[in-house]
Amino acid sequence: MAHASAQLWLGGDRFRSEQVPLPELNDGELLVEITAATICGSDRHTVSGRRPGPHPSILGHEGTGQVSASRRAGVRVGDRVVFSVTDTCGECARCRAGLSAKCLDVRKIGHELFDGGWRLNGTYATHLVVRPGQAVATVPEHVGDAVAATAGCAVATVMACLEAAGPLTGRTVLVNGLGMLGVTAVAAAKVGGAGHVIAVDPNERSRLLVDGLADDVLAPGQARGPVDVAIELSGARPGVEATLGSLDIGGTAVLAGSVAPTEPVDLDPEWLVRGWRTVTGVHNYEPRHLSGAVRFLGEHGSLLPWEEILGRRYPLEKLAEAFRAAPDGLREVVDIRLG
Three-state SS for 244? Predict the structure, then answer.
C-alpha cells in the first residue's frame, strides 16, 4: 500500500478522510500497521473542547498493530507492538534525570499538527510512524488487540502510579475514580499485594465494574479511612480533597486524574509535616511502565471485566460517529479490520 488512510480532525466534532503517502523511514523509526485503537477520555475532551488541541491533526494515542517496516535494531517486521505516547530526545536534563515524560523537546502521538513534520502521528489511521524516541513493547499472542491498545496510555499510567505509591504489600489502598485507570488500578493493587483495596466512585455502573475485585466498593462520603496509599484518578476537586483527607500517618497520595484546569484545593503544611505524609503527581510514564503494562495485561489482564470495559466497535471511517455517540463502555474501539 502506497498510502495510509486516516481520519483528520478539523476541530470540534468534524473529521475528514485523508489519504497520506507512506514516508521513507529514518534511522530508529518504525511503520506500524494499526489493527485496533481505543478512544481515551482525553481524546473526547479534545473533541468536545474541554482540552485544547492543535488541528488539523490525526488524533488517537492508544493503539496496537503490526510492524510493516523497521529501521530500529531489535524490532522486526511482523512484530505485534504497542508504543509509548511520548517521543523524547533522550539527551536533555529531564531525560537524563529519568523524567523523559517531561522531555524539554517532547512530542506526543495524537497531539501534533498534521503538517508539522510527523504526519502519521495518531492511531486513528491505518498506519503510524513510531519515532526513535518512542518506546515499544511486543504484545503476547493471547492478548487481544483492543485490550493491548490500552497499555499505551491507561495501563502504563497506572503502572507509574503504583511505582510512585511505593510498596503495597499488606497496605490499605484507596482508589478514587473508576474509569479505565481506576478499574486497572484496583486490579493492579491487588496483584501488587495490597492487603485491603477500597474503590470509590459516584456512579453505580462504575462501581459494579470492580465488584469482586475491590474489598470495599463505595460511593463518595462512604470512604473508610485512614489509608496507607490513596490514588486519585477522577480529577474532580471533591475527589482530590477526599483523597488527601483519607491519608493516615506516613501515607502517600498519588494524583493522576487532574489533567485539566480545576479549582485549587487547600493543603495544610502542618498536616503534611506532622503526619509524614507524601503527596505526588504522575503524568504519562517512562518506558519501563509501558513494558510493565504489557506484562500486567499478559499475566493478569483476565482480572479486568473487558466485556464491560470495551464498548462498541467502529470502522475507521465511522470515527466521527463514535465521538458523537454516548460511550457504551470505558473504551470504544476503532477496529481497522472492519474497514
Answer: helix
Q: How far is CA 182 from CA 156, 157, 176, 177, 210, in A?
A: 12, 11, 7, 6, 9
How far, in Å, CA of 270 to CA of 189, rounded? 29
Q: HSE on the CB side for 131, CA within 13 Å?
A: 19
According to DSSP, residue 88 is labeled: -
CATH class entry, domain 3-152+305-338: alpha beta
CA-derived radius of gyration, the chain: 20
Which residues, 6+ apart, have CB-to-CB distance to 244 below 8 Å?
230, 253, 265, 267, 279
Q: Quick check: 339 pLDDT over 70?
A: no
Q: Which three cell numbers stand for residue 65?
A: 498493530
Q: Are strands 62-70 and 80-83 parallel, antiparallel or unpaired?
A: antiparallel
Q: What is the pTM of this model?
A: 0.96
Residue 169: exposure state from Cβ atoms within 10 A (0-12, 13-18, ≥19): exposed
List, by residue range, all CATH 3.90.180.10 domains of the chain.
3-152+305-338
pLDDT bucket at 1, cuts 50 / 70 / 90: low
What is the C-alpha to C-alpha distance for residues 227 and 218, in angstroms, rounded to an integer?
Answer: 14
The architecture CATH gives domain 157-281: 3-Layer(aba) Sandwich (3.40)
Cβ neighbours of residue 212 closer than 8 Å, sequence gap 6 or more? none
CA distance 7 to 9: 6
Question: Which residues on adjacent β-strands are paired with residue 1?
Answer: none
